[in-house]
Design goal:
about 150 residues, RbsD/FucU family protein, RbsD-like_sf, RbsD/FucU_mutarotase, RbsD-like fold, RbsD_FucU, six-stranded mixed sheet
Length: about 150
C-alpha cells in the first residue's frame, strides 16, 4: 500500500501511467472492444486489465493521477455510437461528468467515430480494458503536464 493512491489502483496501471509522457494517449475500452489486437500496435504493446470497473469508474481512477491535456482540441475523446454522431449515450454522459470535473482550464472533450477511434487507439501508448458492458463505452485520454 502507498499513501495517497487509491488501493484499487493495480500496479500495472500505475506503471503505465508513470511511463506515459505529455501527449501520450491511453484508450479506456469496454469488454467488447478488440483490446489485444489494438494493444499490439501501441507503444506498450499490452492490455492493462481493470476488472470490476465501469468505464466512468476507470476514468475516475485514472484521472485522480493523470493530468489531462488542455493544449489540444480535445484532451479526452469518447467513441460515437454508429449512426448517432455526437449524441452521447448514458455511458458517455456518466464519463463526461467525470471528465468535465477533471479537465483543466482551457481543455475540451470531443467525440470520434468508431473506425477513427480504432486507428487512434492503435497509435496510442496503451489500452486499458475495463468490464464496461455498455456498447461504445470507449474513451481516449491524453496526458497533460503538471505545473
Amino acid at each position: 500500500m502507498l499513501k495517497g493512491i487509491d488501493p484499487r489502483m493495480p500496479a500495472e496501471l500505475l506503471d503505465t501511467l508513470m511511463r506515459m509522457g505529455h501527449g501520450d494517449e491511453i484508450a479506456v475500452v469496454d469488454c467488447n472492444y478488440p483490446a489485444h489486437s489494438t494493444a499490439a500496435a501501441t507503444v506498450s504493446g499490452r492490455v492493462v486489465e481493470l476488472p470490476g470497473f465501469t468505464a466512468p469508474q476507470a476514468i475516475s481512477l485514472i484521472c485522480a493521477l493523470l493530468p489531462l491535456d488542455p493544449f489540444v482540441p480535445a484532451g479526452a475523446l469518447w467513441m460515437e455510437v454508429d449512426g448517432k454522431g455526437d449524441q452521447p449515450d448514458p455511458v458517455h454522459a456518466e464519463a463526461l461528468a467525470v471528465l468535465e470535473a477533471e479537465m483543466p482550464e482551457g481543455g475540451a472533450i470531443g467525440s470520434i467515430g468508431r473506425q477513427d477511434f480504432y486507428a487512434r487507439a492503435a497509435g496510442g501508448f496503451a489500452v486499458l480494458r475495463c468490464t464496461e458492458t455498455r456498447p461504445f463505452g470507449c474513451f481516449i485520454l491524453r496526458k497533460g503536464v503538471i505545473f
